[in-house]
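Z., the sequence and structure:
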Amino acid sequence: MKYPRIRDLKEDKDLKQSDIAKIINMSDKQYARYERGETDVPLQVAIALADFYKVSLDYIAGRTNDKRGLTRSELSDEETELIKKYRSLSEGGRNRILERMDVISEQEQEQQAKIKGVG
């Protein structure tokens, strides 16, 4: 599999290809092939890169923009169910849910401000 973000991650850390190659114990040439997308990156190498950069495999693979990724283990069963239901809605339904969440959030913030103002 090719991992489109490994070059960006390297550049974000101001590192060279040779630096990363040493860190993951491979030749500079082989790592350069991975970065250019000429050769598929083996899973064990992708895991080593994810561990080094402290990002998820999904982020490296371009499947999410969240560097931490979003794994089920981070979500409660209730949160997982909410996401499934949200994803099953039409765009209009999703927008209505988001609008209602905004209203509820504003109401709760106002209540918290009142409580803090009283105390």
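The two ends are 57 Å apart (CA to CA). The helical segments are 6-12, 17-23, 28-36, 43-53, 57-60, 77-88, 91-118.

Let me know what you think.
H.
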